[in-house]
Amino acid sequence: MTDDTRDSAGGQYLLDNRQSEAGERFAALSELFDPWTFRHVETVGLGAGWRCWEVGAGGPTVPAWLAGRVGPTGYVVATDIDTSWVDDTAQGGFTVLRHDVGAEAPPAGGPFDLVHARLVLVHVADRLKALRSMAEALRPGGWLVLEDADPALQPLICPDEYGPEQELANRLRRGFRELLRQRGADLAYGRKLPRLLREAGLADVGADAYFPITSPACAVLEKATVQQVRDKLVTAGQATEEEIDRHLANVAAGGLDLATAPLISAWGRRPTA
């Protein structure tokens, strides 16, 4: 569930899990998208005894939910480059491992009945390698469920841009997207998932999309995100300190209808023959 991405200049993350705001972001992302994720995973038949790999877990909510569904006869491994926000939950019915899906072989415990990743691949440098690695980790008949953003499909954080507060919010969002693009993020990746799953040899591929137009969790997410990247926005000339403070005050005032980029969910099954 992490959507961090390396800064090629400094080897750091644009949205660093070690920053205190990361916990706020994970909580907001969970509130926004967990019900959507759970519905898709239930649709592919998740049940007792399944072996699951949660890729880029970020926080604990998805692997803990999976562990509850697969029960004591199942197995869930949650991996991430930075496991800061899941280490303390290692006794909650799932295993936690540090792992780079774009560079390392799948973790032990497979082949898997389910592999799931949310807001991960859009930021991975070798996305195709990572996707194929996840597909190859499936048992015959197993399901790969990938969910990634497509900011280019709906780029505005305030789709209803009717005043200066909304214009400022959208301008800062453009700056944020530019920082992501400079660090290798594919801002139109979500829409490619169905084709990429077919090209990876998966069958019964389907996809849909979701994004809230306004939600209290969107405001929490925006505040935490802007606070994490404010120095980079200023350094890059995308915004001034005063503009960022003004935008954060606008968010806190509650008068902005803040949206997210569409989350594209795609799924496919490894053929049995």
Radius of gyration: 18 Å
Q: What is the CATH superfamily label of the domain at 21-151 and 185-212 and 261-269?
A: Vaccinia Virus protein VP39
- First and last CA, distance: 31 Å
Largest sheet: 7 strands, mixed
- Tell me the fraction of residues in β-strands, as a range: 15-25%
* Secondary-structure arrangement, i.e. CATH architecture of the domain at 21-151 and 185-212 and 261-269: 3-Layer(aba) Sandwich
Average of the residue pLDDT scores:
90
Could you tell me the number of beta strands? Answer: 7
How much helical structure, as a percent, in the residues? Answer: 25-40%
Shape: elongated
Structure report:
With 273 residues, this protein is of the alpha/beta class. The protein has a domain of 168 residues: Rossmann fold (3-Layer(aba) Sandwich), CATH 3.40.50.150. Helices cover 37% and strands 18% of the residues. The chain is built from 7 helices and 7 strands. The protein has a 7-stranded mixed beta sheet, sandwiched between helices. Helix 1 crosses helix 6. The longest helix has 23 residues. The N terminus is likely disordered.
Keywords for this structure?
single chain; 273 residues; alpha/beta; Rossmann fold; seven-stranded mixed sheet; 7 helices; 7 strands
